[in-house]
Structures are given as structure tokens and as C-alpha cells.
Amino acid sequence: MSNSKRLHPISAVTNFFKQLKELIVPFVAFFVFGTRASEGDLWFFGGSIAVVLVVLGIGVLNWLRFSYRLEEGELRMEYGLLVRKKRYIPFDRIQSLDFSEGILHRPFGLVKVKVETAGSSGADAEAVLTAITKEEANWIKETIAQAKNTLAEETMDTKVEDIVEENVIYKISFKELLLLATTSGGVGVVLSALVAFLSQLDDFIPYESAYREVEKMISNGVVIIAVLVFLGFLFAWMVALIGTMVKYAQFTVKKTEREIIISRGLLEKRQITIPLNRIQAVRISENILRQPFGLCSVHIISAGGSVRNTEGSKVMLLPAVKRVEVATILGDHLPISTPVLPFNKLPKRAFPRYLIRGSLMVVPVFIAAVAIFKLWGLLSIVLFLFSGIWSYLKYKDAGWSIEGQQLNIQYRSLIKNTLFMKKHNVQSLDYKESIFQKRKNLASMTSLIKSGMGAVGGTIVDIEKEEAKEIYQWYSYSRKAPF
């Protein structure tokens, strides 16, 4: 179908930086714990230059040895520095092609293409074309789509129209982008990274002199210290704000007949394609910073591939929108609806149990504080107030509802979550009843859906036992509940 092609030469540069990135930790470890003699420094810098040159050479050789082509309904790749390897991926296994444009790609009109298949799971894609032109990427995408349509016609004996129309269902506004950045909570990450970075530079930063200056400031007054701390947090907040705005700038959601296409990024543009038939559930999250403003974020839970991450194969669909507007924005674009529904709440007799569980988490901290700080440790009693508020929010926000073939559950940890899932996507529905719950005629219900290599879901604690039976009977094929 096509001749063998090489990646753009910039691929050698990206391979070089990728390999160099993996060597940062060994370099830092040697720099911190290695010898500090002048002769040792000379060997260190000389060896470092040699390693960099070797890595650059490997990047060039890997680029020269990599080729790809489309042939006989397959994406075929050949690569390998010492051992020649071949990988053939049939078109019908390819679920999506995700595009991204890094800083090195954009000046040359290039993109990075991740090939996701039904069998790929985890953070790594099935295959990656690190640098090809946008025209080449679009040609590959169209060729694979046409081949799939032809296969569908032959299988179903019906004509399948080429899907080229993309409807924009959401585009982030500047106001929403600003609200997203200011409520992202990324300050802690920035501060942690800054402390970790500075801790490695003790040879270059005169910490002893700095400590002496700090002692002088403390002797001059606490106000100066307070101002410096405030300025430090302000700087971290500004860095987090700018980083979030750059990351989510131009956030756009498009839909075709079969896919959801999400693109975002100012410096590095990313595009993620999610087949509609792989969507397992929709999750609406409201953190404590956004909830007072009526804002939430919406995630798609998918059955693996590139959308798998540490939180369970989820991709952000709407970054920061009004909760009441979610159903209007998404409409019927997804196979799962997200209406604003009245949820069945927990019984009042469940509230004391929430308070007790919250208090049990604080008691060890309170005892330790009193034992260590004596009278001052009694001030930690304020933690019981916070645990009481948190317990009340967990009790108030827990709930469930059934709408036809869809189960919706609501629960809270630190973040309030609402999970919408179709019955046929529910992998398991577990019922638990402890000795203490049995006395109150209560139970706990956990629903799990397939996500990547595992499952993700939510738990409602201290639900009415009769309501737990109702949910199980709705889910059970036999309509018989084991109670």
C-alpha cells in the first residue's frame, strides 16, 4: 500500500532527550554522593560529556534503523539497533490514534502519533511514531478509517459512510480556564518540586550565609518572616496557575459518529481520541475549592489504552464547568446520560455512624499531641470539629438512583464524586453487612466497572438494607437477591 518511510530527523533529537532524561537520576546521585576532589570532578565532567555523545549517537542510529509502512491492512514497523525487530498491527485492532505536538514538533509542522489497540493497556501505547508530518498523520488516520469501513461493509453487507464530520460540543472559555487554574490546587506540587530541587544545590547556594540572614530577620521581627512566607506561597501559586493555563489552553471537545476527540495545550498540543464504544462510565468530580462556585470537572472512564492512568483509565472531558450545565453541554453526545437527579439519601440513623468513624481517625492524633506537647496538645481538640464537618459532608453527599438501565451513585472522600454507569458496564456489584450494620438494618454497596487492567467504582456506606436489595435485584440477571 505504501513504501517504507522514515520518521522526521527531529525524531533523533527527541530520542536523545528521552534517553538523557532517564540518566538524570544517576547523574544527580553521582553529583551528590560522589567524590568532590578536583580530579574526581574532572573525571565526572569528562565522563558526562562522553555519555551525552554516546546517547546522541544512539538516538541517531535508532532513527536510521526505524521505518514504517501501511501494507495489506496492517501498520508495519521495523526497528532495532542491534537486533532487527518487526511489529505488524492489523487495522481492525487499532482503536485510536492520539496526536500530540511538542515544542520540538510545532516549528516543523510535525506530530507524535500514539497507536492504541484493544490489547494495549497501561501508560505505554502499542506503537509510537515520534515525529511525522501532520499531513502524513492525517493520511494514516484516513487510510485506517477507510479500511475499517470497507471491512464493515463486507461483514455487514451494508454501506458504511465515511465519518468526516466533527461537531464541537465544548470549547473552554478564558473565564473557565482562569477558574480551573485558580482552583487546581497545584501549589503543593510546585513547592515540593522547588524544595527537592534546592536540596541538590548545596554546593552552589550559600545556605549557611542564608541561615544567618534569616536569623537576623527573625530578630528584627516576625512580620518580615510572615511576608516572605506569603510571597513564597504567592510565587508557587502563580507558577501553578500559569502551568495549568498553558496545559489546558484551547481545550476543545469534538464528536464524530463513533469517537470523542479531545485536544488541549498551548506549548504542547495533545489530542486524544476515545471510541464511544469503549466508554464505561462518566464521573463528575467537585473538589472543595470548586464546589462553592458550583463548578465541577467531568471525566470519562474508559476500558483501557492510552486513557489509563493512576486514577483508573480516566480522561478529562470537561475541565471546569457549572454542575447544572453538564447535562446541557453533553446532551445525547455520550452513550451515558448525566442528568441532575434527586438521589435517594441515607437514613438519619446512619449519621451517628459517620461521626464515630470520623472521630476514630482523630483520637490517635489527639492522644499523641497531648502526650508530646502536654497542655498545648489540647488545642488539637479542634480536629474533632473538622472531622465532624467532614463526616457530615460524607453523609449528606452519599446517595444513589436508578434510571432505566443506568445506575448513578454519589459519594465523597475529599472530593464529591457522582458516577454514572450503564447496567451492562457494571462488572460487579458487592453487598456487605457488618455486625454493627445488621443491628441498624444497614448495609454497604460497592459497584465496579472495568477500567484498563482492573476496575474502578464507588462505595455507598450505611445504605438502607431494603434499598441495597433493590439495587441488587435491578442488577441481578436472575432477579434473586442473596439476602
Topology (elements, then pairings):
Elements: H1 10-22, H2 24-33, H3 38-65, E1 67-71, E2 74-79, E3 85-90, E4 94-101, E5 110-117, E6 127-133, H4 134-156, E7 167-171, H5 174-182, H6 187-198, H7 207-220, H8 222-248, E8 252-255, E9 259-264, E10 269-275, E11 279-286, E12 295-302, E13 314-322, H9 326-330, E14 344-345, H10 351-373, H11 382-397, E15 399-403, E16 406-412, E17 416-422, E18 426-432, H12 435-439, E19 442-451, E20 454-464, H13 465-475
Primary descriptors:
4 domains, 7-stranded antiparallel beta sheet, disordered C terminus, 41% helix, alpha+beta, 483 residues, single chain
Compact overview of the structure:
The chain is of the alpha+beta class and 483 residues long. It has helices spanning 10-22, 24-33, 38-65, 134-156, 174-182, 187-198, 207-220, 222-248, 326-330, 351-373, 382-397, 435-439, 465-475; strands at 67-71, 74-79, 85-90, 94-101, 110-117, 127-133, 167-171, 252-255, 259-264, 269-275, 279-286, 295-302, 314-322, 344-345, 399-403, 406-412, 416-422, 426-432, 442-451, 454-464. The strands form four sheets. A seven-stranded antiparallel sheet has the order 6-5-4-10-9-8-7.
Structure description:
- The protein is of the alpha+beta class and 483 residues long.
- Helices cover 41% and strands 28% of the residues.
- The chain folds into 4 domains: 10-162, no CATH class; 181-248, no CATH class; 252-346 and 398-475, no CATH class; 348-394, no CATH class.
- Helix 5 (174-182) packs across helix 8 (222-248), helix 6 crosses helix 8 and helix 10 (351-373) runs antiparallel to helix 11.
- The termini are far apart.
- The model is unreliable at 187-207, 305-312 and 478-483 (pLDDT under 50).
